[in-house]
Write a structure and sequence with these properties.
heterotrimer; A alpha/beta (517); B alpha/beta (285); C alpha+beta (96); A: alpha/beta; B: alpha/beta; TIM Barrel; 8-stranded parallel beta sheet
Chain lengths: 517, 285, 96
């Protein structure tokens, strides 16, 4: 069957069941309530003074009754420095557990050692927001037994609420925790800041293990995860590599191309009228997207504008702007640098939020619904403004859905920034490989060769043209790019669907097919 | 004018996107001695196939007395870039030889003799001494530029980067250019990270009368453009912008258009700077 | 064009291509080894371009090794032309 973006979606997939085709960004939300039934969180009981401490991770895992077909979940706040996920999967594999569904909020290059477990069937399904490196290549080649699901950050929370992701065991790393399981990432030698992605797991998993390398005296403050959810606590020597978990500070890119795109984007934002007192703002964590913040900061200072909040995905650059008084608050679901963790710890207006409050559309007001301006990157964008952030031009999975579709849908002004082509690969083209964010959510595309405005933004387009901006039709830009790079051959796929891209409302916006090698 | 090394495909193909008024494709100092042929062929193909949009394209060829110079002319002149930049010019005699060859090539290809311009680059003390004669040598010459690094070396200056040693040369070159009413471009500012230093130098050379400056990194473009925008006409425009800004501020509007062009905070700041430089009392507007 | 020696042009830099040419005995034909970071998307196009240009330069018995880092079509033409001219001893205006 075709969804509303003309993508072919199977009605039924072995390993996933019935699929609902995407029908527009707000079609399901318009009703005001969720059609699907939700599952209740588990209600557990412990006897007085029961000791949660385990000697090691294996002991803790054994106590949670691991079994074939179980779902195990993790957060990805340790980013490229994560040690916990791989070690946990190793233990489960050694225990002979098979047919595991892995539900990590995202997968990074640090998780590549689990590739053999995918190939041998220990892991048979994956729910995640992003996959990279060799793992991304392997799943696109069809190594996983059941189809994988790519979801957004908000969509993951929704999926746990509906029971689609049914977590048997969650293993949550924390940089500080006490023996009852109160845990945080805001301080400690391996501090990583917000634990926003872990909250839903801690509330809904049948069994919760906290893993820390820094056991503190009771009580651990602040509490990102509270003791009443936690079954077991393990102290390990190290939860990961601090240098890869959190860099020192995030530097603005020096690439002239990215800076030029960013400067143009900042001017577009100013021209849109969204840059006014009390506005809210989100940017990506690097490249042209983060560089936009540099120019917005200058404009805000020059025009004495004070914003309401920064949302994200927060870097030290955002913290600087908070400290300069340019914004009143930061709502932090993921902290990228050491400077961010300490701001979270010390500044009461730097507020940690769980992923549901961040981006789940099925509540009374997730933060992405309040966003005024968001600046996002893109791996590919097509002439309908649909964006791909998950697959590369050779068909492998190499990115993440993340908060892309969440923020794009909610923001008043969604600005996509990217070069029009990279190396010889077109980024602006007629049709993207995989749609993650629908074109209706993207308002403006800013590239080094021109600005393209979504036809539904007539007023903005008029304003930009009148003010002398290099506005182009996106089809013209796509043709211009094709003339420069030449016509790229499409990657060949088989008919087998190896993964689905789930929109934040649970409908399927696109599928990923097996790459023909 | 953004300098782009002639043997670097990545930079050549992106030359036109940075908003520079002009780009210089360099076959001379930016290219290794054993890659002169590769650069020449690469730049030729780029000129033929890459659309540089609204940028004026200049090609700096090697000096006629090198093993490479004449080949450069044979390859580039038929492609008729906006201008040809001749480096290290010292005498009218060499200019004549160059013009003769250019003329012959254009003749052979049926091309006009007044379309492609010539830029003369002064990089030695002798060049500076002769600049008056060189500037007016041909109506095809429409700009002179100074090569500060090479000039400082030729003068055997101990401290090359404070501008003092080449100051007289700068002024002499400007005077020669002005006497022929042609453009005059200043030399590169080497420290790419020192944005304040670049601004100070750009403001100084603008006061001397230079009409443009060489740029070696796209990040420098904005600062130089910023310094060089105001002219007599711009002062009037600046006044218009300032008045509109005051009017709109009273109504709470921050961004607006004047004469169909966008005015945002930096533009207002620039307008105020122009007016200040022109000693206009803002309260009288 | 008559090739005489082994020669190369270009580099391993991003958006460039390294092309090495080696003359072969008459009748050996064209042996083209192609490596590219955009092989899947442009492999065929690269091969077609190289063959077309070899036709234009009238070069037939040659071994060509191409190592491409996403070069655009004008760059490929330029590097091939340079390598061929170097191989034929026809390069001018350069230090060898």
């Amino acid at each position: 069957m075709k969804n509303s973006l003309d993508r072919d979606i199977p009605e039924f997939l072995e390993g996933l069941g019935q699929l609902q085709p995407f029908g527009g960004a707000f079609t399901k939300l318009k009703k005001g309530w969720m059609d699907e039934t939700t599952v209740p969180p588990p209600v557990k009981a412990k006897l007085p003074h029961a000791d949660k401490m385990c000697n090691d991770l294996k002991e803790a895992i054994l106590k949670t009754n691991p079994h074939d077909g179980m779902t195990v979940s993790f957060h990805h706040h340790l980013r490229g420095g994560d040690d916990v996920l791989v070690k946990s999967m190793q233990i489960l594999a050694e225990l002979g557990i098979k047919d595991i569904t892995l539900a990590s909020s995202s997968l990074t290059s640090a998780h590549e050692p689990i590739l053999p477990y995918i190939k041998d069937g220990t892991i048979s399904q994956i729910y995640t927001s992003g996959i990279r490196g060799e793992l991304g290549k392997a799943v696109a080649q069809g190594c996983l037994k059941k189809p994988f699901v790519i979801h957004s950050h908000g969509g993951r929370v929704r999926a746990v609420h509906t029971g689609r992701i049914k977590i048997d065991l969650t293993i949550l790393a924390a940089s500080a925790a006490d023996n009852e399981g109160n845990a945080t990432g805001s301080h400690g030698p391996s501090a990583f800041g917000s634990m926003g992605y872990a909250s839903i797991d801690s509330w809904y998993a049948s069994q919760v293990i906290i893993v820390t390398d820094n056991l503190v005296d009771y009580p651990c403050v602040p509490q990102s995860i509270r003791q009443n959810c936690v079954d077991y606590v393990v102290k390990v020597d190290s939860i990961g590599d601090p240098s890869k978990i959190a860099g020192d500070t995030t530097r603005i890119t020096k690439s002239p191309m990215d800076l030029r795109i960013a400067h143009l984007a900042a001017k577009v934002i100013e021209q849109s009228g969204e840059l006014k007192n009390g506005f809210s703002f989100q940017v990506g964590a690097g490249g042209a997207s983060l560089a936009v913040a540099k120019y917005i900061r200058e404009i805000m200072k020059a025009r004495e504008i004070k914003g309401s909040f920064i949302l994200g995905g927060v870097t030290s650059y955002g913290v600087d702007m908070l400290n300069e008084g340019l914004f009143r608050s930061i709502f932090d679901v993921q902290s990228f640098d050491a400077a961010v963790s300490s701001s979270l710890m010390n500044n009461q207006y730097h507020i940690e939020i769980p992923a549901g409050l961040y981006a789940n559309p099925f509540n009374c007001g997730c933060m992405t619904n309040k966003l005024d301006v968001v600046v996002l990157g893109a791996l590919e964008i097509d002439t309908d403004f649909n964006v791909n952030v998950i697959t590369g031009s050779e068909g492998y999975v190499r990115g993440a859905s993340g908060g892309h579709s969440d923020t794009a849908s909610g923001a008043n002004l969604t600005v996509a920034v990217c070069p029009s082509f990279r190396g010889r690969i077109p980024i602006v083209k007629k049709k993207v490989h995989t749609i993650v964010t629908p074109g209706e959510s993207i308002d403006v595309l800013v590239t080094e060769r021109g600005i393209c405005v979504n036809p539904q933004q007539k007023e903005l387009k008029k304003r930009l043209i009148e003010a002398g901006y290099p506005v182009k039709e996106i089809t013209d830009l796509a043709n211009e790019v094709e003339k420069i790079t030449g016509v790229a051959q499409d990657v060949e796929f088989t008919d087998r669907v190896v993964g689905v891209v789930e929109y934040r409302d649970g409908s399927i916006i696109d599928v990923i097919r097996q790459v023909k090698e | 004018m953004l300098y782009i090394p002639g043997n670097n495909p990545a930079m050549l193909q992106q030359g036109g996107v940075y908003g520079a008024d002009g780009i210089l494709l360099d076959l001379e100092d930016a290219v290794a001695l054993n890659q002169k042929d590769a650069a020449r062929i690469l730049v030729s193909h780029m000129l033929k196939h890459i659309d540089y949009d609204t940028c004026e394209v200049t090609v700096r060829v090697n000096h006629i007395d090198t093993p490479f110079g004449e080949e450069d002319l044979h390859a580039i002149v038929p492609l008729q870039p906006h201008a040809l930049r001749i480096p290290k010019v010292e005498t009218t005699e060499e200019l004549q030889r160059i013009l003769d060859i250019v003329h012959k090539i254009e003749e052979a290809h049926g091309l006009p003799h007044d379309q492609m311009k010539l830029h003369v680059m002064i990089e030695t003390a002798l060049g500076v001494e002769n600049v008056y004669k060189l500037a007016r040598f041909s109506p095809r010459i429409d700009a002179i530029s100074i090569g500060g690094q090479d000039l400082a070396a030729d003068m055997q200056l101990v401290k090359a980067n404070d501008g003092i040693g080449i100051d007289y040369a700068r002024k002499q070159i400007v005077m020669a250019a002005k006497s022929c009413k042609i453009d005059v471009f200043d030399t590169v500012y080497v420290d790419v990270d020192d944005e304040d230093g670049l601004r100070v130098e750009a403001e100084y050379i603008k006061k001397l009368g230079f009409t443009g400056k060489a740029i070696i990194n796209p990040r420098q473009i904005e600062i130089v453009n910023d310094v060089f925008t105001p002219t007599e006409k711009e002062i009037r425009k600046a006044a218009k912008i300032y008045k509109a800004f005051e009017r709109n501020k009273a109504e709470g509007i921050g961004v607006f258009a004047v004469d169909g062009k966008m005015v945002d905070a930096p533009v207002v700041q620039r307008a105020i700077r122009v007016l200040e430089m022109a000693d206009v009392d803002l309260s009288t507007l | 064009m008559e090739l005489k020696i082994k020669a190369q042009a270009g580099s391993f830099e991003s958006s460039d291509v390294l092309i090495m040419v080696e003359p072969l005995d008459t009748g050996a034909g064209r042996q083209i080894e192609l490596q590219s970071i955009v092989m899947k998307q442009f492999g065929e196009e690269l091969l077609t371009q190289i063959h077309n240009e070899l036709d234009q330069w009238e070069v037939n018995d040659v071994r060509i090794i191409v190592n491409d880092k996403g070069a655009l079509s004008p760059t490929i033409s330029a590097r091939l032309e340079t390598a061929l001219k170097r191989s034929a001893g026809l390069q001018t205006g350069t230090l060898i």
